[in-house]
Design brief:
Rossmann fold; 42% helix; binds phosphoric acid mono(formamide)ester; binds norvaline
Amino acid sequence: MALKSTPFHLLGLRDFPVTAAQAIFHEAKLYKQHRATPPAKPLEGQTWALIFSKSSTRTRVSFEVGIRELGGTSMFLSANDIQLGRGEPIKDTARVLGRMIHGAVIRTFAQQDVVDFAQYSGIPTINALTDDEHPCQILTDIFTFEEKLGPIAGRKVAFIGDGACNVAVSWAYAAEHFKFQLAIAAPEGFECPVHNSHVTHVRSPEEAVRNADLLYTDVWISMGKEAEAAERLKSFSGYQINHALVKKAAPGALVLHCLPAYRDKEISEALLEERIDDIMDQAENRMHVQKGVMHWLAHMKYHNV
Ligand code: CP
Ligand code: NVA
């Protein structure tokens, strides 16, 4: 089913308007510049829940801190600890929480679950990663690119590795909205399912990185795919980002990784350590950009009720 991001939610990047992203980046910059004295506290008096069915370090911490610094209170709900984990339907969970809390941040498997939660809860809902998309990550990655290299429109991004994973899919939607070229190098069986005029699908990592301004990768074994580990390790050999590959990209190309990183698998230890400052800026920016997202959601709600 088509993903839909209404003004009240961030469910994915497929239909996400670039004007909304620009508004989010504008706020994110202000929240980053003035962290000690935030320009606004749009979540004052609100309680937001994080409902997670998968592990997380960056997403969980950046949202919990971000909600608090925007004046709200956060509540972490592991899906296994609530009745959802025992089979209570997502729509009933959503209806109940919609009566009690003001916003939800959801990390789960099925994209349909965040779509249903948004529909049945009626509260702002943010996709914090599903099997299909990772919109907060890619908005942050674009923000980080622009902070370091200027506007992304007209530039070239190379994604090397699992083209079918959530991160690659969100990159592919973003390429069309933000008007940059995205070359995805993936082995057979792991091609990106998204096709548009801004995305090129290739087998060869060398071909993908030619003239690229950003080299990007993600884990070869996404959460939920652990049973395929042995087969995936074989398929992805040759798809590592390393110094030899960076040499074939544009001079001054940025290297980013959403993390967690598996050293000497999708990225060489030497390259990761060389580029660690940029990659940590990227990780930190999750918090600033997500503040921008929540600010924007709170603002849209205010103007629509
Ligand atoms: N990049 C990212 O989403 O990291 P976590 O899985 O630690 O949240
Ligand atoms: N594709 C990875 C992203 C982790 C942040 C996963 O889904 O596990």
